[in-house]
Specification:
Helix content is about 50%, strand content about 10%. It contains twelve helices and nine strands. The strands form two sheets. The chain has a seven-stranded mixed beta sheet, sandwiched between helices. Strands 6-9 form a two-stranded parallel sheet.
């Protein structure tokens, strides 16, 4: 490939990436805040697998909500746990304090497994107008239910909420949390710009009617997840999607403890393999991946072709400035601090990380908690 052709290709993909960053940055201006005064009945669904260390803390936070305790219920669905998750959940449910806590088990439903199937079972056995989901290893603030439920104006069918990682003292953990903030910022900006693609299932809510209208998770396989549901609600016109930026809605989770755990988690998230009803989503993602792949290859080409050095350096510098602009706006929105030194170090790994994580996610079998995931 000639230097001129490589430069033109790089600049074309970079132009698309700059437009993407601009859309995300502008979309952050259009996040939602609770405004509805209605108090709908809410069903909080928690799918749990091998969460004996976390389930008590999770349920305790859910029972200490500022929301009217007679207007919500908690449904814990055990997904074939090998530890005491179900036993501990049953002990919590046996207490008489409101709200009502129901414990279900996928073990009693032959052939069903996985988070989508667990949530679907929970919804089937719940009665709330609004379905609110979080993960068993997360902590929710006391105003969480009220904040998320308050975003359901009549036209809204799906609400995505903020999830932030609590870093440990390690430098790696801080880098992981920075990358996670980037994902959350991107998801919020895309939703705000009217092109929702990603969300985090640890903090989502949707109308039961919208879930039913789009046939929920479909066949319940690993290919149908929370992002799929959000996209179906948009594609099938079951309601608007909004992102709730209220600080009272921030759900926190811990960052992966090791680099290996981080890699497994992120490649699992990348393992969609093109399950999109809206074909434009796949096209946009392919263009984004194309930019990172071309930028990665251009780095090696610049070693052989010195003429590539200047355009490559220009693109890398502008990429960093654009990402810094978006990330700092996201950090202001989510009340997170972004340290320039950590950002610069993260930038060194950003391109190869994206290139290889996406490839591994598409072509390698994914495992989670001793279970092979369907893709």
């Amino acid at each position: 490939m000639s230097t001129l052709a490589a430069t033109v290709l790089l600049l074309l993909f970079f132009g698309y990436y700059l437009k993407f960053l601009w859309n995300v940055r502008e979309g952050l201006r259009f996040t939602a805040m609770p405004s509805s005064s209605n108090i709908p009945f809410v069903s909080v669904i928690v799918a749990a697998r091998d969460e004996a260390d976390n389930i008590q803390k999770c349920v305790k936070a859910l029972t200490q909500q500022s929301y009217d305790p007679t207007r919500y219920e908690i449904v814990i669905v055990d997904d074939h746990s090998h530890d005491r998750t179900r036993e501990l959940a049953n002990e919590l449910a046996a207490r008489d304090n409101p709200p009502k806590t129901l414990v279900l088990s996928l073990t009693e439903h032959n052939g069903l497994n996985g988070k989508p199937a667990a949530i679907a079972l929970g919804i089937e056995n719940s009665s709330g107008e609004i379905i609110l989901c979080t993960d068993a290893d997360c902590t929710v603030p006391s105003g969480w239910i009220a904040s998320m439920a308050g975003c359901f104006e009549p036209s809204v069918g799906f609400v995505a909420g903020p999830v932030l990682e609590r870093p440990s003292d390690s430098f790696l953990s801080h880098l992981e949390s920075l990358e996670f903030l980037g994902l959350m910022t991107t998801g919020a900006g895309l939703i705000g710009s009217g092109t929702p693609i990603i969300c985090n299932g640890a903090n989502i809510a949707y109308r039961r009617a919208a879930f039913q209208q789009v046939n929920g998770y479909g066949n319940g396989t690993g290919s149908c997840d929370d992002e799929t549901l959000m996209q179906r609600i948009v594609t099938r016109k079951a309601g608007r999607v909004v992102f709730n930026s209220d600080r009272k809605a921030v759900v926190t989770t811990v960052s992966p403890p090791t680099l290996r755990a981080f890699w497994r988690q992120r490649t699992r998230w990348a393992s969609k393999r093109g399950h999109y009803e809206d074909g434009s989503i796949l096209r946009r993602l392919l263009f984004l991946y194309g930019f990172f792949a071309v930028l990665f290859l251009a780095t090696f080409l610049a070693v052989l072709e010195p003429g590539m050095s200047f355009p490559l350096a220009t693109v890398v510098l502008l990429k960093m400035l654009g990402e810094w602009s978006v990330l700092t706006r996201g950090s202001d929105l989510f009340q997170q601090r972004v340290r320039p030194g950590q950002f610069l170090i993260a930038e060194l790994f950003h391109v190869p990380y994206i290139v290889f994580a996406a490839l591994v996610g598409q072509f390698s079998p994914m495992r989670w908690k001793n279970r092979k995931l369907e893709q």
